[in-house]
Design a protein that fits this description.
heterodimer; A: 199 residues; alpha/beta; fumarase; 6 helices; 28% helix; B: 299 residues; alpha+beta; 2 domains; five-stranded mixed β-sheet
Chain lengths: 199, 299
């Protein structure tokens, strides 16, 4: 299990270097996204006003404080507490995120079900597991909220964060068809059969 | 008629609710800290160790920076034990708890999670129709009020399961359902946490009991020896599944298993599972009839 450091946005080549179980720390830019944000993009057909090519998406609805508005009337925000939500609810957006927008990494907690494995392999994407609930630490790794779009969806807006030493993350699903979640679940089901026989 | 005593006590309960909500979110109980440290010491998988060490670091960062342990401020759930001679009526206690929840949310500020269940529009500062949720118990021959705040996040609350087993399923059916539920939940409820199980009663009461179970100090055992034995057995078996911290595989899948029970109908055998994440937040206040407040993180 190798240890990597990556700056986002990144390339397909860099993503294909990663293997399930590897540890990764991230610098650069992270795009915050959640249920309603993706429902707007894919179910309501609204183009996202941010470039997602090579991007790292984080499943989050941050706790923030509004500082005011800029010259164009867009809100400016500072972080209060930023953490990560359960990814499984949003798995159906994986393929279009990669295919249409060139997203390279999706980060959340709790993992994606197996339906994410094939699109991630084919499109050159990974799923990063963050430690759910560890928001105090995660907040210190976010340097600044650089941009917010779709404020009316607060807190499920489209967020752009600048991060430093973001992690440690674990590669949960790699771009080669491997998923820790699939393997752990298969092993747990095997063990469960044995336990149930003993009851 | 509202008396001066009412007004004072109303303010005391509101202050206590506001304080408890934020305090619970920032400063997790010592028994939980100890359980997490034990888990980190015995975990052998590399991703599992990475997760548990990050959790311990996170708790420290929250202490040092005065920040919330987890961003999910949950829905505020309070449990009230009201003495029959406590001078403030439960109607006013509820209003005070709601006002305190709103004040904490606005002043901190906390993320506001409450939405209309159909329109999904925000309904207020962590309040709304029937929010916060308050459970009541009334105590004879007492003039005090205990308030426990359990702000529980949605990742773990979404992993709640109910099965109306039949009597012929027996205890085996209960065990099987709990084990299958936790394996099926995988990493989604932020393991390793506390598995709360409610057995007996009715469908609704079983789930209430499961919720009550997760709010107990960690590792405490049910007073009924039959139930306590089942808690121990399930605790061991759940950790044999290998789901591990955050579902990435490992030795520690749960920190403990707590069970609450009620007697039931001869044809019923309900079993409810309510998962509590590793950030098992809870905080209590003991309020006297004279307005004195003792805060208690361990209750």
């Amino acid at each position: 299990m190798a240890v990597h450091r990556l700056t986002f946005p990144t390339t397909e080549e860099a993503i294909r270097e990663l293997r399930a179980g590897d540890e990764v720390t991230v610098d650069g830019h992270v795009i915050g996204i959640r249920d309603r944000t993706q429902i707007r993009i894919f179910d309501q057909g609204v183009e996202p006003p941010m470039d997602l090519r090579g991007a790292f998406l984080l499943h989050t609805a941050p706790g923030v404080r509004k500082l005011g508005t800029d010259a164009e009337g867009r809100g400016r925000y500072e972080k209060v507490c930023i953490g990560t939500t359960t990814s499984a609810r949003m798995v159906r957006f994986t393929e279009p995120l990669g295919e249409r927008y060139g997203v390279r990494a999706i980060c959340g907690k709790g993992g994606f079900p197996d339906e994410a494995i094939e699109p991630m392999r084919r499109l050159g994407m990974v799923y990063f597991a963050i430690v759910g609930g560890a928001a105090a630490l995660e907040t210190t790794q976010i340097e600044e909220i650089e941009e917010v779009a779709w404020e009316e969806l607060m807190p499920e807006c489209l967020w752009k964060f600048r991060v430093k030493d973001f992690g440690p993350l674990t590669v949960g699903i790699d771009a080669h068809g491997n998923s820790l979640y699939h393997d752990v679940q298969a092993e747990a089901n095997r063990r469960l059969e044995g336990i149930l026989e003993r009851l | 008629m509202t008396t001066a005593v009412d007004t004072d006590l109303y303010g005391v309960v509101e202050d206590a609710a506001a304080y408890l909500y934020v305090w619970a979110l920032k400063d997790i109980p010592q028994d939980l800290r100890d359980a997490l440290a034990d888990a980190a010491a015995r975990e052998t998988s590399i991703p599992g160790q990475r997760v548990l060490n990050t959790i311990l670091k996170n708790v420290q960062v929250a202490d040092d920076g005065g920040n919330l342990v987890c961003q999910d401020t949950g829905i505020a759930v309070y449990t009230c034990r009201v003495g029959e001679r406590f001078p403030l009526h439960p109607v006013r206690i509820y209003q005070a708890l709601k006002a305190g929840t709103e004040r904490a949310t606005i002043e901190h500020p906390l993320r506001s999670n409450s939405v209309h269940t159909l329109t999904r529009e925000n309904t207020g500062p962590n309040t709304g129709y029937r929010l916060p949720i308050v459970h009541w118990e009334f105590i004879p021959d007492w003039d005090g009020l205990d308030v426990k705040c359990v702000p529980k996040g949605s990742g773990s609350e979404n992993m709640s399961f109910l099965k109306m087993c039949v009597p012929a399923d027996g205890v085996k059916g209960i065990k099987q359902f709990v084990l299958e539920s936790i394996v099926g939940a995988g990493g989604k409820p932020c393991p390793p946490g506390i598995v709360g199980v409610g057995i007996g009663g009715s469908a609704d009461y079983a789930m209430y009991l499961a919720k009550e179970a997760i709010a107990r100090p960690i590792g405490t055992r049910n007073a009924d020896p039959h139930v306590a034995k089942l808690e121990e057995e399930l605790f061991q078996l759940l950790n044999e599944t290998g789901i591990g911290p955050m579902g990435l595989g490992g030795d520690v899948t749960v920190l403990n298993c707590h069970i609450e029970h009620a007697d039931t109908h001869m044809t019923l055998n309900p079993v409810a599972v309510n998962y509590q994440c590793w950030a098992a937040r809870r905080a209590s206040a003991h309020i006297g009839s004279n307005g004195d407040v003792d805060y208690d993180r361990e209750a």
